[in-house]
Amino acid sequence: MAVPEDSLFTMKYTPRFLMMLDVKTLRLPDDMKIPVLVGLGDNDELFTVEKEKELYELIPEDKKEFLVMENTTHSLIPRESWMQVVNWLDCTFINFEMN
């Protein structure tokens, strides 16, 4: 994770986020059957596309998609990018059944 040199940028939520789960012990089940969307902005200030792609590759789900949203930062998500997520949800879960 990178911290931009912007005096208005705060990391207030980050400690809470980092304490939500212990990523060193996180293990995803091999038989996980839940569609997954991993997305980030092409101008994200905290996470790189390469690192998010590494996370994506670790997900043992066949129904997964990797989305890099154009003109999007970590906290500024234009309507067009939100609509990509909404469309993925609609297409993915319209007939989805959890087993």
TrEMBL record:
Name the record gives this protein: Prolyl oligopeptidase family protein
Taxonomic lineage of the native organism: Bacteria, Pseudomonadati, Bacteroidota, Cytophagia, Cytophagales
SUPFAM superfamilies on file: alpha/beta-Hydrolases
InterPro entries: AB_hydrolase_fold
